[in-house]
């Protein structure tokens, strides 16, 4: 049994297991709520309940005063939901966040193509147009799979009647295995969205660096197509990481864009090219390509990272050592069943990374 | 979603940034003379992200409510003779050490943050420091009030403030804070705001509070909770400080690293008194010092340093030594106090047989091998009526001021001693860590007020030890000091409990 908790003002939705605290679920699902002690004594994680109910848990009377209890405040680190809830936390909404309403859609599969040996591109037409910010994701209900699965939208927002998803088959992943092995053209699936805080901060004028790994190319693809379509003139650089040439999908699209637009640079990086690939480009990890290209200095940019956790981790370190900090780093981590439940003791040093 | 009202962020902005002013006819440098003093480069105070957003009116409202609650509990505690509920009268000795050694540090923290807040050019940092200063003032006051009840019934609490400035072992915590306060403002913030508040404070408060709970001391538990509710703000301020300095300029990295190295070493040395409180002074144990260290330093601190590594910060220097020390420090410290128990303002005692077994279990690699034999010997002597006290005065470390009681960690039979010569004088240290700190800033540490040196120089009265203890330290000799067994504390307790 689990409950759905909506975290306002961003509208992020988290699944909270029976007996799990809101804070624990939020942090594990990449939603940041301010916290410090983690055990009900400091009040840093205080949030307002707007709807639903939860058990207050072990909240200290000094951290959560009587009046506050009456006002419906709870400590996220102690509170375990007893129903679906809506809470409001002291988190900033990005000025560039448009907050398109989340809606339900029915998608009909129109095409399934092999992008690489492990990644399929799935195209849907929707029963109605979807408004979203490039970079955001949708939730897909997959037959026979409990809960929903998140996939970033790879098409640009102006193509609002369709949905393009890039799906990598995850070993032992029930959802992606179904999509790879059973899904047929003509099938319909329930879809909801858009979700997420991953989008281009267009009001910020700095250059944009995209670092993508594996099927994490989806969001950056949407974001870049969107920016170029809008004639955004800032320098845009895409680093795409893959194992070898066969995994490096959609390369043609970006090579063409790079020729067409002066402000767009495309740098693919292969970490294990095959002999037969006859690879002339950068060999190494994608963050290393970024270090080389920018000479280790990233100031004056905003970075958007999308891909598997290890790649993101390496990229953050590279960026920070090149003096680009949290406020200028945005990311979408593709955490899959294959990454396992790593017990990570997170310090409160960073909010989002 | 609700319509946009003035949110907390905007309100806080009005309180901070918008209350700042420009210097039109005075030089800004004269207003903030210490800002460049330490070589740290601050290029843009606007990048300071307010670690918490609390407006002044909300602050007062919350604090007033906390006080109301707290004092209601204190009142109930004294009306119900709460002191009779503690697990064992030996427990009160932990309270005595806390009041003489730790509570005055809250006052120093108040002084430090008030001063540093004034020196920060950035208004966000200024307001945050000011609030922390007020919190710390509240902490010292509530601690004194919490413990004043014990003062009516037990010896050793009556002169805490006088003793804090003089007594040999209390110079350890006192000089720690004086060292931080006499540094530049940014070092103070890394020392106290970051190293102490963020990483080490949990080791002080959490075990001590749960220790109080396990030993029936509701007054202390309650002030602990009340203080903890402020502590989060202090911790987030500490974190923002470190991030801010590291992001402002790359030249700041080596400076900040040096401060972290210094203050983690200083901090772990200071915590050796907490270690012995946990392992020896709490009759009902919570967890061993070693366990607390693993949870709060190794796990929590480890994940912090993993994150800090992104900035290029590495684990504090001598972390390997620190890791080994968790097996030894509490035992070595309490043995030293036990053998100097005639010169302490609280009672010392041999652990009970049960406690010895607990220690053996918690420290399987070291206790039976090195420390249990000492206590067995002490037990034998005591049984023969020969409870012994060391006659000599210990040599103190020039940096941390702790008696040279610690051993080499790889050879617990060998005392750890280091020395260095500066301007023709030889100075002595307990460790490489302390020696390094001295060598970085010798002019500072040659001025250390070392209690034992002061005694020998005749600055503490005397010449007899008892004169120094009673006249200079204001220890009530024969009541405050010596063994728990046979003390007036014990006698009164037995009378109250009808067991005498
Ligand atoms: S994080 Fe401290 S009370 Fe929740
Ligand atoms: Fe405090
Ligand atoms: Fe504090
Ligand atoms: Zn020392």
Query: Can you tell me the overall shape of chain A?
Result: globular
CATH topology of the largest domain in chain A: Rossmann fold
- What would the principal axes of the Cα set say about the shape of chain B? globular
State the helical fraction of chain B. 55-70%
How many DSSP E strands of chain B?
4
Number of domains of chain B: 1
Give a quick rundown of the structure:
Chain A has 353 residues and is α/β, with parallel strands linked by helices. Helices cover 18% and strands 31% of the residues of chain A.
List its salient traits:
heterodimer, A: 353 residues, alpha/beta, Ubiquitin-like (UB roll), Elongation Factor Tu (Ef-tu), domain 3, Rossmann fold, 3 domains, six-stranded antiparallel β-sheet, globular, B: 500 residues, mainly alpha, Ribonucleotide Reductase, subunit A, two-stranded antiparallel sheet, 22 helices, 4 strands, binds FE2/S2 (inorganic) cluster, binds fe (ii) ion, binds zinc ion
Walk me through the structure.
The complex is a heterodimer of chains A (353) and B (500). With 353 residues, chain A is of the alpha/beta class. Chain A folds into three domains: 2-89, Beta-grasp domain (Ubiquitin-like (UB roll)), CATH 3.10.20; 103-195, Elongation Factor Tu (Ef-tu), domain 3, CATH 2.40.30.10; 207-339, Rossmann fold (3-Layer(aba) Sandwich). Helix content of chain A is 18%, strand content 31%. Chain A has seven helices and 19 strands. In chain A, helix 6 runs parallel beside helix 7 (309-321). The longest helix of chain A is centred in the last third of the chain and has 13 residues, at 309-321. Chain A is globular, with a radius of gyration of 21 Å. The mean pLDDT of chain A is 91. Chain B is mainly alpha-helical and 500 residues long. Chain B has a single domain (31-349, 388-497), classed as Orthogonal Bundle (Ribonucleotide Reductase, subunit A). Chain B has helices spanning 8-15, 28-31, 56-79, 92-101, 103-119, 123-151, 160-164, 171-181, 185-214, 218-248, 252-270, 272-281, 289-308, 319-325, 329-339, 353-362, 367-383, 432-440, 442-445, 451-456, 465-472, 488-496, and strands spanning 407-408, 411-415, 418-422, 425-429. In chain B, the strands form two sheets. Chain B has a two-stranded antiparallel sheet. In chain B, strand 1 (407-408) and strand 2 form a beta hairpin. In chain B, helix 3 runs antiparallel to helix 10 and helix 9 (185-214) runs parallel beside helix 11. The longest helix of chain B is centred in the middle third of the chain and has 31 residues, at 218-248. The A-B interface holds A 8-9, 11, 34, 36-37, 41-44, 60-63, 65, 67, 88, 90, 92, 99, 316-317, 320-321, 323, 325, 327, 344-350 and B 1-2, 8-9, 49, 52-53, 62, 65-66, 69-70, 225-226, 228-229, 231-233, 235-236, 239, 242-243, 247, 250, 299-300, 302-304, 306-312. Residues 35-38, 40-45, 63, 75, 77 of chain A line the site of FE2/S2 (inorganic) cluster (FES).
């Amino acid at each position: 049994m689990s409950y759905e908790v909506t975290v306002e003002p961003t509208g992020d939705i988290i699944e909270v297991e029976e007996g799990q605290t809101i804070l624990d679920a939020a942090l594990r699902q990449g939603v940041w709520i301010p916290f410090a002690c983690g055990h009900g004594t400091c009040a840093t994680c205080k949030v307002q309940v707007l709807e639903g109910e939860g058990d207050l848990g072990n909240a200290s009377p000094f951290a959560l005063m009587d009046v506050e209890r009456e006002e419906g405040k709870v400590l996220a680190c102690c509170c375990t939901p007893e129903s679906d809830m809506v809470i409001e936390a002291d988190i900033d909404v990005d000025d560039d966040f448009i907050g398109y309403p989340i809606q339900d859609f029915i998608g009909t599969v129109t095409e399934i193509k092999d992008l690489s040996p492990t990644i399929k591109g799935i195209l849907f037409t929707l029963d109605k147009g979807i408004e979203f910010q490039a970079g955001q994701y949708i939730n897909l209900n997959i037959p026979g799979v409990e809960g929903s699965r998140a996939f970033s939208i790879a098409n640009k927002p102006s193509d609002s009647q369709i949905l393009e998803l890039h799906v990598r088959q995850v070993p032992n992943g029930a959802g992606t295995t179904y999509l790879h092995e059973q899904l047929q053209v003509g099938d319909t699936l329930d879809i909801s969205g858009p979700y997420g805080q991953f989008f281009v901060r267009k009001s910020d004028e700095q250059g944009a660096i995209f670092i993508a790994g594996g099927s994490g190319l989806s969001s950056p693809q949407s974001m870049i197509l969107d920016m170029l379509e809008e004639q955004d003139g800032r320098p845009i650089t895409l680093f795409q990481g893959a194992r070898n040439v066969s995994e490096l999908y959609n390369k043609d699209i970006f090579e063409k864009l790079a020729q067409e637009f002066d402000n767009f640079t495309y740098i693919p990086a292969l970490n294990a090219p095959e002999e037969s690939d006859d690879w002339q480009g950068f060999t190494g990890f994608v963050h290393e390509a970024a270090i080389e290209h920018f000479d280790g200095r990233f100031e004056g940019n905003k970075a958007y990272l999308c891909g598997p956790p290890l790649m993101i981790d390496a990229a953050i370190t590279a960026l920070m050592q090149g003096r680009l900090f949290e406020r200028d780093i945005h990311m979408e981590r593709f955490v899959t069943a294959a990454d396992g439940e790593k017990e990570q003791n997170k310090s409160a040093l960073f909010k989002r990374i | 979603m609700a319509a946009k009202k003035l949110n907390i962020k905007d309100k806080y902005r009005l309180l901070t940034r918008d209350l700042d002013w420009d210097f039109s006819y005075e030089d800004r440098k004269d207003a903030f003379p210490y800002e460049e003093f330490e070589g740290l480069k601050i290029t843009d105070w606007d990048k300071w992200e307010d670690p918490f957003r609390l407006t002044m009116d909300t602050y007062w409202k919350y604090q007033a409510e906390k006080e109301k609650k707290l004092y209601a509990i204190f009142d109930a505690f004294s009306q119900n003779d709460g002191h009779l509920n503690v697990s064992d009268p030996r427990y009160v000795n932990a309270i005595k050490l806390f009041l003489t050694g730790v509570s005055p540090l809250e006052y120093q923290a108040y002084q430090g943050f008030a001063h540093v807040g004034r020196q920060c050019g950035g208004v966000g940092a200024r307001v945050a420091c000011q609030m922390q200063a007020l919190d710390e003032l509240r902490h010292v006051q509530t601690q004194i009030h919490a413990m004043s009840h014990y003062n009516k019934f037990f010896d050793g609490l009556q002169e805490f403030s006088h003793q804090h400035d003089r007594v040999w072992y209390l110079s350890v915590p006192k000089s720690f804070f004086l060292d931080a306060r006499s540094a530049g403002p940014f070092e103070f913030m890394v020392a106290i705001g970051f190293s102490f508040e963020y990483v080490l404070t949990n080791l002080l408060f959490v075990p001590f509070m749960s220790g109080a709970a396990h030993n029936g001391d509701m007054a202390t538990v309650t002030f602990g909770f009340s203080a903890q509710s402020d502590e989060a703000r202090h911790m987030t301020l500490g974190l923002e400080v470190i991030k801010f300095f590291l992001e402002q300029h790359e030249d700041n990295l080596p400076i900040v690293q040096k401060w972290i190295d210094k203050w983690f070493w200083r901090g772990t040395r200071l915590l050796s008194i907490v270690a012995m409180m946990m392992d020896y002074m709490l009759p009902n144990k919570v967890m061993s010092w070693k366990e607390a260290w693993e949870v709060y330093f190794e796990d929590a601190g480890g994940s912090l340093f993993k994150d800090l590594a992104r900035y290029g910060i590495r684990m504090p220097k001598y972390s390997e030594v620190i890791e080994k020390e968790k097996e030894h420090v509490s035992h070595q410290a309490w043995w030293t106090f036990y053998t100097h128990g005639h010169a302490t303002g609280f009672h010392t005692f041999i652990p009970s047989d049960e406690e010895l077994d607990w220690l053996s279990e918690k420290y399987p690699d070291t206790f039976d091998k090195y420390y249990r034999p000492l206590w067995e010997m002490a037990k034998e002597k005591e049984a023969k009526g020969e409870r012994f006290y060391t006659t000599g005065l210990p040599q103190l470390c020039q940096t941390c001021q702790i008696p040279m009681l610690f051993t080499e960690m790889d050879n617990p039979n060998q005392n750890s001693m280091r020395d260095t010569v500066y301007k023709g004088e030889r100075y002595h240290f307990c460790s490489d860590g302390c020696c390094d700190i001295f060598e970085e800033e010798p002019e500072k540490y040659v001025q250390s007020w070392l209690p034992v040196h002061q005694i020998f120089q005749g600055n503490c009265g005397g010449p007899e030890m008892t004169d120094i203890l009673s006249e200079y330290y204001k220890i009530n000799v024969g009541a405050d000091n010596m063994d728990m067994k046979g003390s007036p504390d014990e006698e009164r307790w037995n009378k109250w409990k009808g067991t005498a």
